[in-house]
Amino acid sequence: xxxxxxxxxxxxxxxALLGLGLKENEVVNAASVKVVTNHDPYAKxxxxxxxxNAKKYKNYLPVQFLGINDFHGGLERTYTAxxxxxxxxxxxxxxxxxxxLNDAQGYFKKANPKGKTFRVEAGDMxxxxxxxxxxxxxxxxxxxxxxxxxxxxxxxxxEFDHGLAEFHRILIGAKPNMNEASKYGYTSILKxxxxxxxxxxxVIANVVNxxxxxxxxxxxxxxxxxVKQGKKSxxxxxxxxxxxxxxxxxxxxxxxxxxxLDEAKTIAKYEKILRNKGVKAIVVLAHTGANSAxxxxxxxxxxILKKLYKIDPHNSVDLYIAAHSHQYANATVGHTxxxxxxxxxxxxxxxxxxxxxxxxxxxxxxxVGHVYPVQSASAEPTIKDDAKxxxxxxxxxxxxxxxxxxxIGQASLAETILSGRGHSLYSEESPAGNVAxxxxxxxxxxxxxxxxAKYTVNFAMTNTGGVRSDLVVGKDKSIxxxxxxxxxxWYNDLYVISMTGQQIYNVLNQQNxxxxxxxxxxxxxxxxxxxxxxxxxxxxxSEVIDNAxxxxxxxxxxxxxxxxxxxxxxxxxxxxxRKAKLVDNQIGKDTDFLVQYIKxxxxxxxxxxxxxxxxxQKQ
Length: 619
What we know:
Blueprint: H1 3-19, E1 35-37, E2 61-68, E3 79-83, E4 86-91, H2 94-111, E5 116-121, H3 131-134, H4 139-147, E6 152-153, H5 164-172, H6 178-181, H7 188-191, E7 201-202, E8 207-209, E9 222-229, E10 232-242, H8 252-255, E11 258-260, H9 263-276, E12 281-287, E13 291-293, E14 296-298, H10 300-311, E15 317-321, E16 328-333, E17 336-341, E18 347-356, E19 361-362, E20 368-373, H11 387-404, E21 407-410, H12 431-450, E22 459-463, E23 478-480, H13 481-487, E24 493-500, H14 501-508, E25 520-523, E26 525-531, E27 539-546, E28 551-552, E29 558-564, H15 565-568, E30 581-589, H16 590-601, E31 616-618
Parallel strand pairs: 2-5, 5-6, 6-7, 10-12, 12-15, 15-17, 22-29, 26-31
Antiparallel strand pairs: 1-16, 2-18, 3-4, 8-11, 9-10, 13-14, 16-17, 18-19, 18-20, 21-23, 22-25, 24-29, 24-30, 26-27, 27-28
Helix pairs in contact: 4-11, 9-10, 12-16, 13-16
């Protein structure tokens, strides 16, 4: 090729790339997409030094995106938020979150009086919630989100917990079907609760009905919003994405009606459609995880973005709000800002940029994003609780207190029984987790005896992700219904299954497989394992002891095990459970069994004793 032809080819390619909606003066080589970890040393936007200069962009349209993820009905839940090496104790709470969002928006408006703010969420707003939200089927959470003016969101896996139809009901504020609600332990207090439309527009591009290939419930794959300032206007597109690992995250009945399309391919498809409509400022709300630590950012979201750049190096995705992994993340992948604000409202994303009305895209390097903590009133007294959100929470407390505060038993010590959340023990074993799995074994055998069934249950297993909270014990050693429900909020069905000793070894060796951090809680057995540091499985279970006999399992003998419906369907990639034989599917609910177990252990002056976490022994 001659030099003149080369020049012509490059020129034509450049024109074509501009037509495809490249970032201003930017071409990204898909083969070498850079991942640069950004940093968040400050607790408030007012302290941050690298915001783009508003005066420099006075002829542009300022826009702000305030995002949250994985709220999980955390109306009053607090915990230590770890952000870029900084720890913020007692972070979170809906009334604090609302005020922090208002404060961040106020600061943005002060520099940009005509700027536009979008409040967005990346899924798992509901599910695995504390009692003051869960007992009202998370409708108080939807009220809170409405009050905080969230306008666009997407689906997370927990929006499927009670079936997507039920989430759609609370999204639009329809009345509940009380017969259906009773399956999950909800009472008449739900019927009397005011039902209102959340006003959140859910966008989801990669979930389609298995029956007809259409996106369910009339959800749209994307939405377009217009930012106006006088005669100037720029359109902003929002695409919604859900992780394709859904079959390992919820029960068969919940996930199977739908197909989950490849995340990167779906983004590429709709991002191109948006560009063809003249929309070049594009935000992806994605329920896929990310993690920034030790100056590196990794996770499914990074992999998806890299794949997107491979499919289309000229994509116009500017901002990717991540979720699902409950971790902190802030990075730039190619030209795309990637952020995740931990979970449960303990932090929020804040991205500010300037839209060029001529190119209809962000001005180059103007989009800056940070993650900030939602600090407690004692840590940041200048920010007061939002009164309207606090009133919604107070009302939910009032409606649920009688149930949530009902004493169901007592512990031997006035000490909270810890779960693996926030203070995991090795191999994800925890005292609260052991209480939950012991409850399933004990109550199942009690029920089997009452039914005069011709079998006994040897073991129980449950997933660590099913234990959502510490078991809170009062100063008087009391345990309440609300405390128990916070530990196991699911109302999962329990099944008795039959597996050979070899199958039990197989499923135990699916823990932490291929880098997964999924573990099983066990009852009726103990196991010994070694750390291999090689191959797909870091740990190898070498011996399993049956507590009843004190002997190792016989590989050829069949044993009965109680598991929840999630594991029975192969959830958390424990696929070996799918090979088991079903013995009994009319056992009960995990939440009910935990409540009854605490009652049983507290009878006749007795108390619940926190089990020692010694069931998994490293050799």
